[in-house]
Write a structure and sequence with these properties.
The protein has about 290 residues and is α/β, with parallel strands linked by helices. It has seven helices and eleven strands. It has helices at about 45-60, 80-90, 145-150, 170-180, 190-205, 240-260, 275-280, and strands spanning about 5-10, 25-35, 70, 95, 105-110, 115-120, 160-165, 185, 210, 225-230, 260-270. A six-stranded mixed β-sheet has the order 1-2-6-5-3-4. Strands 9-8-7-10-11 form a five-stranded parallel β-sheet. Helix 1 (about 45-60) crosses helix 2, helix 3 (about 145-150) crosses helix 4 (about 170-180) and helix 6 (about 240-260) crosses helix 7. The longest helix is centred in the last third of the chain and has 18 residues, at about 240-260.
Length: about 290
């Protein structure tokens, strides 16, 4: 079971290998499931399995990778959950914290609808975390979402790949990590964003990524010159506004259409679905 971007595994015995997809945000081991209520997960047998699973998880990583743990659960301050936290701290030597924590334990509703389950994250941080990210911007994409968007462009080794309004460069880096590419081009009118993108591109060890101070609605590029285009559009909340988006979306999509080669692929993300759809429909046949 699992939600979008998350995998959960149930084990019948010890396991040795785990394949974590680039677009998965977290992988969890299911310690116990099917309990009619959360407290039923906290019997002695379940706690022994949890401690054993924590030991196994720690064995998969370098020493010192896990120093603290956090329990995420509704009613985490109840006596039953306090006992669980005390047991984990006492038998593992991990410090208990209210925020962060290298080891994340969760009690949630079973995704199959069969009650509650106790799960433990397999990594000391979410897989969405990227070692190359040195600089972040408001509204920057999660690395796994950017990886999924890059994959949606059906990457080809000779692609001319354009990232409009590139921000911190997440989509550019994830496209480079997806496989060979002919040319990587990012543009943004914000000089600070381009500087941030440059830091991340450098940290990722990438050469030849082009970063330009271009307006995404007026690109200095020839017609039909781009194979793949990505854009993280402003949602009109943290970045931009609904009023400015009414003008931006049609203009940006029209310019993307102008520079796109026949058969080019576009991957965009937005919460303003109706505006995006209406803007795209208005361009049909143009």
């Amino acid at each position: 079971g699992g939600t979008f971007g998350e995998l959960s595994f149930r084990f019948a015995g010890p396991w040795r290998h785990l394949l974590a997809l680039r677009t998965v945000t977290a992988v969890y081991a299911v310690v116990a499931s099917g309990a009619p209520r959360p407290a039923a997960l906290l019997d002695d047998g379940t706690l022994k399995r949890l401690v054993a699973q924590i030991g196994h998880i720690r064995s998969l990583h370098p020493g010192g990778a896990f120093r603290a743990f956090r329990l995420s659960a509704a009613g985490a301050d109840s006596p039953a959950f306090r006992r669980l936290r005390e047991r984990v701290a006492g038998e593992t030597g991990l410090a208990e914290v209210d925020e962060g924590g290298d080891l994340l334990l969760r009690v949630r509703r079973d995704l199959r609808g069969a009650g509650f389950e106790l799960i433990a994250r397999m990594s000391p941080r979410p897989l969405a975390a990227r070692d190359w990210r040195r600089c972040n911007r408001p509204g920057a994409l999660n690395g796994t979402v950017a990886a999924a968007m890059a994959d949606l462009t059906n990457p080809r080794p000779d692609d001319v790949f354009l990232n409009l309004a590139c921000g911190s460069g997440t989509l550019l880096v994830e496209r480079a990590l997806a496989g060979p590419v002919g040319r990587l081009v990012g543009c943004d009118v914000d000089a600070d964003a381009l500087h941030c993108a440059g830091e991340n591109v450098l940290a990722a060890g990438l050469d030849g990524v082009e970063l330009h101070p271009w307006d995404a609605t007026a690109l200095p590029l020839p017609d039909h010159s781009i194979d793949a285009i990505t854009v993280d559009l402003p949602f009109g909340q943290l970045v931009g506004s609904h009023a400015t988006n009414e003008q931006l979306y049609p203009r940006l999509l029209a310019e993307a259409g102008r520079v796109a080669r026949p058969g080019a692929r576009l991957a965009a993300i937005t919460q303003q679905f109706r505006l995006f759809g209406r803007s795209a429909d208005d361009l049909r046949g143009t």
